[in-house]
Amino acid sequence: MTVSKYGKGLWKIDVSDGYDELTGERKRIRKTGFTSKKQAEEYEAHIKLFELRELKPKQKISIEYLYSLVKTEDEIRGNSQSTKDTQDSYYRVYVSKFFAKANMRTLTVLDIKKFREWLQEQPSVKGGKLTNKNINRQMIFLHKLFDISILHQIRSDNPCQLKALPEKYVEMKYYTPEQFKRFIALIDPIDEFRYKLFFEILMFTGARSGEALALTWEVVNLDEGYINIKSSAHYRKKKVTIGATKTTQSVRRIYIHKSFVDELRAWKTKQFKLLEKYVDKPETLQIYQTTPEIVTHPQITGFRHDKLKKRMPDDLPLIRNHDFRHSHAAFLISQGLRNGEGKDYLFFTLMKRLGHSSITTTVNTYSHLFPSQQKEIASAFDDF
């Protein structure tokens, strides 16, 4: 009997978890202190479902259970903390609310359509309704939930098969070298050096913000002139975690130009003298540190909003952090075109330098930066 009474009005559970592979002894999950039989039985059911994964034929499958399977799969695959946190946000704010009482085993395409229609009426934290882009991302997450259900033989089909909603085209924003020089001049090179260096890293390497904030001197080789991107910093619930990069292809080596190497070398010497009494190994310092505390995403955001935004001239827009990555790519493309390099070579070089998972991502993101290509196509008809 897995649920039994003991003492004065207390209940306990004793659930079998199979046999130990080495000793052959039976493994058990035990817990005591329940004040009622119902409470003990509910906990027993939870253990059997969420830990032992015991399912009865035609048993109702909750959205909570499906999501637990997704989280387990994410751990097995080593998905990034950023990906897991984004999914968690989708689940908490939208998916878990709509499907709170649903049987995920029996939902149909019509039910999924109702969910998407419900999303279209939900408010956005930025004001107005959710954008089609945001809704499409939530539908991708829901599709993943049902894929997991197929993997675990809970379902034989995936009802989340709706065609994606049309997304509004947003023109890519980026700085030219001249604009970047004007931008960086707005940052005090002494009192605000850590922010200056952060934006220089974004512009000169094309690194993602999380990758940039994870940089320590351990991955910076000034003698050879390169930076190894091996990890990414993520900030959530007032805590910084250093985890894996976005994809395995994001692990890469980025070479930097000599004048930037010289700047980093001079700063490294100065930083070590400034902070040596706070650390045992100076090489472990985050490269932006001017105090014992590391620079975090909220600090960058605060600096942008509270200071930079007020300094920007009317003819110079304040672009997003990620747009410095686009600025890096745009500059390399323009330089490559001037040097007569082929389009295919440029795309391949960009893919490697930016750490894209496939050449398709690079082409889809930056093909519009080749305006002459369209002119060449039109000119071809002169020989028609």
What would you say this structure looks like, in words?
Pfam families: Arm-DNA-bind_4, Phage_integrase. One of its GO terms (molecular function) is DNA binding. This protein is mainly α and 384 residues long. The protein folds into three domains: 3-51, no CATH class; 63-151; 177-326, Orthogonal Bundle (hpI Integrase, Chain A), CATH 1.10.443. Helices cover 48% and strands 11% of the residues. It contains 14 helices and eight strands. The chain has helices at 37-51, 63-77, 81-98, 109-119, 132-151, 177-184, 193-205, 209-213, 258-275, 297-311, 321-338, 343-354, 359-366, 371-379, and strands spanning 3-6, 10-19, 26-34, 220-221, 226-229, 232-236, 239-243, 252-255. β2 and β3 form a beta hairpin. α2 (63-77) packs antiparallel against α3, α2 (63-77) packs across α5 (132-151) and α12 packs across α13. The termini are far apart. The model has no long low-confidence stretch (mean pLDDT 89).
Strand content: 5-15%
The CATH fourth-level homologous superfamily of the largest domain: Intergrase catalytic core
Number of strand segments: 8
Mean pLDDT: 89
**CATH fold title of the largest domain:** hpI Integrase, Chain A
Offer a quick outline of the entry.
With 384 residues, the protein is mainly alpha-helical.
Draw up the topology in text.
Layout: E1 3-6, E2 10-19, E3 26-34, H1 37-51, H2 63-77, H3 81-98, H4 109-119, H5 132-151, H6 177-184, H7 193-205, H8 209-213, E4 220-221, E5 226-229, E6 232-236, E7 239-243, E8 252-255, H9 258-275, H10 297-311, H11 321-338, H12 343-354, H13 359-366, H14 371-379
Helix pairs in contact: 2-3, 2-5, 7-11, 11-12, 12-13
